Amino acid sequence: MVRIAGLAGNRGRNLMHLAAVEPGGAEVTVVCTDDTTAPVLSSAADRGIPTEGVERGDDSTADHEARLLDRLEDYEVDL
Fold this sequence. Notes:
alpha/beta, 3 strands
């Protein structure tokens, strides 16, 4: 089984579809977004998928990506 960390910006419709279909046995293990008010967070929570909000703020892209990767360390994701 492939464990996926999904990144979404707003509603995450495609990501939630992947979570529902689980193609090839893939599992969406965590949903991340840079908008802590994004509807995808409640959609994921309704499915029992953990969520992480990592806001961009004034960080550089590299700093934001580093903070995101730090948050994902506790989830054993493959992709």
